[in-house]
Amino acid sequence: MSKPELKYVPTTCPxxxxxxxxxxVVSDGKLVGVEPYKRSPVNEGKLCPKGxxxxxxxHSPDRLTKPLIKRNGKFEEASWDEALDLIVKKFRETSEKxxxxxxxxxxxxxxxxxxxxxxxxxxxVAFKTNNIDNCARICHGPSVAGLSLSFGSGAATNPFEDVLxxxxxxxxxxxxxxxxxxxxxxxxxxxxxxxxxxxxDPRYSPTARLADEWVQFNPxxxxxxxxxxxxxxxxxxxxxxxxxxxxTKGFEDLKKTVENYANVEHITGVPTEKVRELALRYxxxxxxxxxxxxxxxxxxxxxxxxRSLGNLSxxxxxxxxxxxxxxxxxxxNNVQGAxxxxxxxxxxxxxxxxxxxxxxxxxxxxxxxxGLPDWYGATLIEQIKQCGDQIKAMYILGLNPxxxxxxxxxxxxxxxxxxxxxxxDIFWTESCxxxxxxxxxxxFAEKDGTFTSGERRxxxxxKAVEPPGEAKADWEIFVMLAKKMxxxxxxxxSAKDVWDDMRACTPNMFGATYERMEKPExxxxxxxxxxxxxxxxxxxxxxxxxxxxxxxxxxxxxPPAEVADGAYPFTLMTGRLIFHYHSRTQTxxxxxxxxxxxxxxxxxxxxxxxxxxxxxxxxxxxLSRRGEVESLARLTDGIAPGVLYMTMHFxxxxxxxxxxxxxxxxxxxxxxxxxxxxxxxxTGVN
Length: 686
Ligand SMILES: Nc1nc2c(c(=O)[nH]1)N[C@H]1C(S)=C(S)[C@@H](COP(=O)(O)OP(=O)(O)OC[C@H]3O[C@@H](n4cnc5c(=O)[nH]c(N)nc54)[C@H](O)[C@@H]3O)O[C@H]1N2
Ligand SMILES: Nc1nc2c(c(=O)[nH]1)N[C@H]1C(S)=C(S)[C@@H](COP(=O)(O)OP(=O)(O)OC[C@H]3O[C@@H](n4cnc5c(=O)[nH]c(N)nc54)[C@H](O)[C@@H]3O)O[C@H]1N2
Ligand code: SF4
Ligand SMILES: [Mo]
Known about the structure:
By secondary structure, this protein is an alpha/beta fold. It folds into 4 domains: 6-53, Single Sheet (N-terminal domain of TfIIb); 68-137 and 333-494, Rossmann fold, CATH 3.40.50; 140-328, Dimethylsulfoxide Reductase, domain 2 (3-Layer(aba) Sandwich), CATH 3.40.228; 570-681, Barwin-like endoglucanases, CATH 2.40.40. It has 23 helices and 28 strands. A hairpin with a 4-residue loop joins strand 19 and strand 20 (457-461). It is globular, with a radius of gyration of 24 Å. The relative contact order is 0.17. Bound molecules: ligand MGD (2 copies), iron/sulfur cluster and molybdenum atom. Molybdenum atom binds at residues 139, 331-332, 335. Iron/sulfur cluster (SF4) is lined by residues 13, 15-16, 18-20, 43, 47-48, 50-51, 180-182.
């Protein structure tokens, strides 16, 4: 008997924003495994447990295979024609009756750039709306807003491996060992070279374990801590005066603000002498890099937290060369890309602002339309809050709001108020039951396209196998919808056609062709011309702002929207685990990953547990002003008394039943990482 032939298809991991290269192994038209792709400079053949098992969910029998239409409260299989005709009819009716603000479009960060670009193009061309957003809003929206204000560009400044050129690595609110393991590998390599690593986290995370020094502070007091560090740097005259004079503005404003932050131990919990020591250590390093993540962004002070890190780095001239910078570790495989593609309420692809008349005129010409809107559209959570009032119809591509957005009870109530909801996913999710039409998308292994990683590297995604049943690539579904509406400019035969349509109207990506992405190292945008080498490091000579200067902002500390009090005495923090990915639609269907951690748990300080008579492994109830969950207690000394930590992955014990929808005023980020809760013992269940 001859052995079946194996085919190796090089592609990009569908999980986190590190963007590791891997080979999908195909036998007889089916995936049978994953092989390292050693030529990828990102991961050099290594993978984390999620990357190594990313093929396992693809052929799951639970995949959506046919369009579904809800009739009399029950979902029935339908033909593509029926489903798409209904969508066109309902969205047209809504548009005619309620205008462009009557609809919301929520774009996935899991699907390739081509899917994101075409969805926002379809929404803008067909309905003249800017009510378009993606889940960066509840992830690194504050990075986009904050870094744009500070540096003129909302993206990470330096590539991952550049930490090897540093003299000091600061990781702030990032648990990269679990959330970005192959970026953390670079930090491990740097540590082996003798480069010191300091981790700032209220919790002794696996990343804190890796550090030379762990700085524990009270949750959500970043601004006070950073301001105090800057106070001591300026007080001891260790700031980089030449850099400040030549490349920045706003220093006086900053200096005046931080004058009041000499002693902030009562806010942060970190002794003043320690703050001074850390500050002087940062200032003394020749090249220091700051890596940060959601501990910084997912708060109502998110944008100000990011700008504070921008302040700190500019104060010491740590921008624009190897080994320095301020680097958000972008979360989802294509969260950078979804933003770059213009799935945003105020910009087109390449961050071309909709409010600028020339940009609108240019896009109207490129797309063959008139009347593109200039207004700032509703953001992700604003759209949810507007359901039933202003917004009557919604289209959700590859998102699971019932599990992942704050205050699940509110999300369910709001989705119920819609006249019409479309969800396009690869699996049936907790959110699907609120839909009127559910469409089956092809997953990453079944379509071509590109994902843009957190270091702005545009990586190819390649089709390895056919989609199940009648599932289709997401971009193809939008082509079909546009054709049904008789729209011009959607005559795409391949993902590459969509990419080229985007390139043609996006100056900072024009040079990034599919041909250039054939190389394993691919290309980093900005890449404005075919002969441009791409831009791994930003802000070398000048910042990306119109005047070329970086901006300091004097920012005052303010507490989170909801702080622990007598009624709800615990501060709840939320986050991730290495083995699971968000709402687990994919990792929950991987036997290996599910075996590792099959159930939700909450970390509680040992003293608190003793006081409340809670044993390790006991099921307890957490209650907030918005809802409740049950979860296993895990006792630890790695978090301070009064603080709890729970992962976000488990739909059956969903942490977002508890969280708060209060928004950061600048980026509209909800406070996913901080709310007040109380604990109840569940009597009789032990
Ligand atoms: N395994 C896995 N990896 C993932 C993902 C996943 O679901 N699973 N998701 C991806 C995505 S989309 C993202 S955005 C990234 C996120 O990556 P990370 O942000 O690194 O992950 P989190 O666990 O959400 O949070 C990071 C840390 O923030 C800390 N923290 C620091 N300061 C504060 C504070 O003041 N308040 C609070 N509440 N916490 C603080 C928490 O203790 C936690 O250790 O991970 C990506 N990678
Ligand atoms: N409390 C709390 N809440 C959080 C966070 C937190 O730290 N704490 N983190 C937040 C962050 S950073 C993020 S990014 C969000 C994530 O929130 P979501 O993006 O809603 O989470 P996912 O579970 O990744 O949902 C993605 C959906 O896309 C589907 N999908 C995957 N690939 C494809 C595809 O190719 N096509 C289509 N059509 N569908 C596809 C998956 O099946 C899944 O249902 O959650 C946020 N929520
Ligand atoms: S580090 Fe991220 S991109 Fe790399 S294999 Fe793991 S999940 Fe995939
Ligand atoms: Mo994220």
